[in-house]
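Before relying on records like the one below, remember that each one covers exactly one chain. Contacts with other chains, cofactors or solvent are not represented anywhere in the record.
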Amino acid sequence: MLEKFRFLTAGESHGKCLTAIIEGLPAGLGIDVEFINSELKRRQQGYGRGGRMKIESDTVEITSGVRFGKTLGSPLTLIIYNKDFENWQKIMSVKAEDETDEKSFSTYRPGHADYAGSVKYNQKDLRNILERSSARKTAIEVAVGAVAKLLLKHYGIEWHSEILQIGKGKNEEEFHSEIDSAKSVGDTLGGKFEVVYENLPIGLGSHVHWDRCLDGKVAQAVMSIPAIKSVSFGNGEFGYEIPGSKFHDEMFLKDGKIVRKTNNAGGVEGGMTNGEPLVVRAVMKPIPTLKTPLNTVDSSNMTETTAHFERSDTCAVEACAVVAEARIACVLANEIMLMYPSDFLTDKV
């Protein structure tokens, strides 16, 4: 099925820049660069972030598709420059004559893309896998998601996210304590978060084909974020322990309108939005790059050793929630444009 809101991203963690091209936006959408940059700043925040966030101050540059603050209907290009590239210019050079083994490594990091990626792409230098598999690429995805959010705003759609748990902690004070304890021993922590989108029209998605189900699209978008290991909707993760008589959201009438007292389905029934808030929960595993490295194998000589360490975070669950907001926004923007197709921005519905 042809998608309306499409985008591609490019760029490496320590390369010159991160780039995205967005296709399919209607003409006339107001583009607020300050809003996009505020979303990028949100991604950089959170207790437990590492040294890279002290180097980068992500801001977006728009190089096509916008004139005088509004979209033209043509492809929109976003660029985020990596400040740390100043220290990596030769290491990440595109020129053959600059080839160097500086910053190369051959020891796999358990839990990362190093091993499978090196086999798939026949790479001996694991730097060639790390650079694109790094979560740094989510910066440009947040910028794309911010553009999608601007479209959703036009239709009165709202959103928020919340951290539910980090390690064993279930409130902010416990979050910080858990992260501090992990950092003190060179370990990392994951956690659980929730993203909610409200005021969605009924019927986004479809039941007629598996690849048009909204929950399937959202799950894929969130699941493919680096380090995400599970995705659920509403109270779906506990559905196995709740009988149907209590799980399904009963329907009542109030002033001639259908209302519900619960939202265990998380706003999706039969692959379509049902008028209730879309509630998506996800679990992020601990970051696999540890200061106290795990046992692994050195691919250069096939000997046992300890894993490579690359500058990293202790915990990035808060940032991951922002990335999930962005990914979901892109899915919803596409569905909105499929429901209300137009080459120019129409009035609010």
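The first helix runs from residue 33 to 44.
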